[in-house]
Specification:
Structural class: alpha/beta
CATH superfamily of one domain: Immunoglobulins
CATH topology of one domain: Immunoglobulin-like
Shape: globular
Largest sheet: 8 strands, parallel
Strand content: 15-25%
Number of helices: 17
Organism: Paenibacillus aurantiacus
Keywords: Glycosidase, Hydrolase, Signal
CATH class of one domain: Mainly Beta
Helix content: 10-25%
Mean pLDDT: 94
Radius of gyration: 26 Å
Strand order of the largest sheet: 23-22-21-16-13-10-25-24
Protein name: Alpha amylase N-terminal ig-like domain-containing protein
Distance between the termini: 41 Å
Number of strands: 33
CATH architecture of one domain: Sandwich
């Protein structure tokens, strides 16, 4: 999957030595401010990432040279070099680095080198030398031998949306959020749109489980788009989120709408296409709070079996593929034996898989290529949505296959071209539960992915001792930090910055339940969520610690008695988003580990840019701890002060550190 590493693996150790020997003879090594060799590179001082302090152009154009900065302990090394692979000539190149300055504490040296501009993709790592000793450094960190994977990226002309980097997402499962229009409520015992299972309408606050004789998927509470619009003040101002992501809203017989019946029609239980236009206008308006953005759920891998193209129950006037092999939609699906044996999504026969066919096929055209395709219609006026979250996109394929091959990547490359042709600043967020490198690291498919592996899972295991499926599985602080570092290294920096970081979502048990109902664990999780790399994504209700087990219990109705800043977790969410909005370093700055303390369950890290140095301190123990944080690693000088933006307390840096007391399952955000 990690195609970017294949070129580096093609050259073996012997070849690498030959290249190094022939290339180094021409390097001019600047040894200014370098100590005499002690043949020992101090790993503790090494640092680089692609934040604004260390990379002059994290999102370069093809005409932008990239100047890289590398940090070492003062006087520790005799030379440093950048080694990069250039896809244009499938070759390696060396750039000698020069010493330029010390940091604010005088503890560190900075060395720089420049990779010339071009349109080609490049991957780079650093070689650090002290006399006869050599260390290597790439996105995974320092190593004694040359790494073969997880290098830093230069992807010219690949840009992820700035509004997604700088925003906070609020995810809404529409039926369970707020009932703003009771006139579109469905009655118990009726059959939604000709489906073969009856609906059950329940009162707000009731259990989401169906009564006997009904299906969990056919339980409705009346939440709708008007309700979302009516709660815009809560989302934008009480919480402070500025991006709304809606679970599917198109016509479908279920409450979750992942079994689409008609992509071009908003589900009547949620309102109408006009209601969607009103909602989009309200989100984008600045009269009700900051300008917002709207992301819709694109369920393009499969349809429902009552979709007008399939029409299994004959509820639509069209002749569907299930009804006749002469249907104009027969090629949209893959039949092994017509009509009852057909390719499905994960074996669910209510979800027939779409057959994307070859480039230019009818399915590709109707979903994203045509001017009036599904994807382009909603990106254009009058809807003007800002992006698509793709449901199970790795399974999209031709001929009933289940994706993850060249056809799948071709589909999403075409999809990106189609979407960006309408709005270059639109977002494409792929649902993926593992390493989404294959879809994000080439710069030609998704902007972002759901960060189960790099955020939801490690955070859940560290704080709750449970994985995201609510099974016992714990991490020490050191293991937590290592898991974060390893998963960050899977992605270009501009992808890391827009990864969707959620505590819960509609597919996993609620964080509040995994935390055993301990609201302090939710506090701690929120502090991390709002200060870590990526786009914080709040699943409605997580901001007050909503409880819920596996589907459908994770889709309870919102308790509006908790939807106020008199709820301490809601108030903290509002404060944390405000802090995040105030400091770009928390959104696009470097990430640097400062402290891991397994005995006391303490963790500290820095977020850095050219304006601010911020140290975040987290206490994952049940009791308060005094913690001494080595903030000089983040270039905070002795005698300078930092302010905890949560408590307001001010601390002075002394002997390279700040000492403070942090409550159990809580944290501090120390800003300088």
């Amino acid at each position: 999957m990690k195609n970017r590493f294949k070129p580096l693996r093609k050259v073996g150790l012997a070849s690498a030595v030959i290249i190094a020997a022939t290339t180094f003879s021409s390097l001019l090594i600047n040894t200014a401010s370098a100590a005499s060799s002690d043949n020992n590179v101090e790993w503790a001082g090494l640092f680089h990432d692609q934040g604004p302090m260390y990379d002059s152009a994290p999102e370069p154009s093809s005409t932008t040279a990239v100047t890289l900065k590398f940090r070492v302990l003062k006087g520790d090394i005799t030379s440093a070099n950048i080694k990069y692979y250039d896809s244009a000539d499938s070759g390696y190149h060396w750039v000698p680095m020069n010493w330029i300055a010390n940091d604010a504490t005088g503890r560190y040296d900075y060395w720089t080198g420049t990779i010339p501009a071009s349109a080609s993709t490049k991957y780079y790592r650093f070689q650090i030398n002290d006399g006869t000793a050599t260390a290597w450094y790439n996105a995974k960190g320092a190593s004694s031998s040359e790494p073969t994977a997880q290098d830093f990226y230069i992807l010219p002309n690949f840009k992820t949306p700035d509004w997604l980097k700088n925003g906070a997402i609020y995810q809404i499962f529409v039926d369970r959020f707020y009932n703003g229009d009771t006139s579109n409520d469905i009655a118990t015992g009726t059959y939604p749109y000709g489906y073969n299972s009856p609906a059950q309408f329940k009162s707000w606050g009731s259990t989401p489980y169906a009564s006997s004789g009904y299906s969990n998927s056919e339980v409705f509470f009346g939440g709708d788009l008007t309700g979302v619009n009516q709660k815009m003040n809560y989302i934008k101002n009480t919480i402070g989120a500025n991006i709304i992501y809606l679970n599917p809203i198109f016509k479908s017989p279920s409450n979750h709408k992942y079994d689409t019946q008609d992509y071009m029609t908003v589900d009547p239980m949620f309102g109408s296409n006009a209601t969607l236009q009103t909602l989009s206008s309200g989100i984008h308006s600045t009269s009700n709070g900051p300008k917002g953005y709207l992301v819709l759920d694109g369920v393009f891998n499969h349809t429902g079996d009552n979709h007008l193209w399939f029409n299994k129950y004959g509820a639509n006037s069209t002749t569907g593929a299930y009804q006749s092999q002469s249907s104009p939609y027969s090629s949209y699906y893959t039949f092994q034996a017509w009509p009852n044996a057909y390719s499905t999504f994960l074996g669910f026969n209510t979800l027939p898989k779409l057959n994307f066919g070859a480039s230019g096929s009818a399915v590709r055209n109707v979903l994203y290529n045509n001017t009036n395709s599904v994807a382009k219609t909603y990106l254009n006026a009058p809807y003007n949505i800002d992006g698509w979250r793709l449901d199970a996109p790795q399974y999209a394929d031709a001929g009933g296959n289940n994706g993850s091959n060249s056809t799948n990547h071709q589909i999403w490359t075409e999809f990106r071209s189609a979407v960006k042709s309408v709005n270059p600043n639109s977002a494409i967020i792929g649902e993926y539960w593992g390493d989404a490198n294959a879809w994000t690291a080439q710069g030609n498919q998704w902007d972002s992915a759901t960060n189960f592996a790099g955020f939801t899972q490690p955070l859940s295991r560290w704080i709750t001792g449970k994985d995201y499926s609510n099974n016992a599985s714990s991490l020490t602080t050191t293991q937590f930090d290592s898991m974060l570092a390893n998963t960050r290294a899977n992605y270009p920096t501009n992808v890391q910055q827009v990864m969707s970081n959620h505590l819960s979502n509609h597919d996993i048990p609620r964080f509040g339940t995994r935390a055993g109902g301990d609201i302090w664990k939710t506090y701690l999780a929120l502090i991390f969520q709002m200060t870590y790399v990526g786009t914080p994504t709040i699943y409605y209700g997580d901001e007050y610690g909503m409880q819920g087990g596996a589907d459908p219990d994770n889709r309870r109705t919102f308790d509006w008695s908790q939807g106020t800043t008199t709820n301490s977790a809601v108030a903290l969410t509002k404060k944390l988003i405000s802090i995040r909005n105030s400091y770009p370093a928390l959104r696009t700055g470097s990430f640097m580990t400062l402290l891991t303390d397994d005995m006391n369950n303490l963790y500290s890290y820095a977020r850095l840019d050219n304006t601010n140095r911020i140290a975040v301190v987290l206490n994952n123990d049940s009791v308060s701890h005094s913690v001494t944080v080595p903030v000089n690693k983040a270039s905070m000088a002795d005698g300078s002060t930092v302010t905890d933006k949560i408590s307001g307390n001010v601390y002075t840096v002394s002997n390279g550190s700040v000492t403070l007391t942090v409550d159990g399952h809580y944290g501090a955000i120390l800003v300088q």
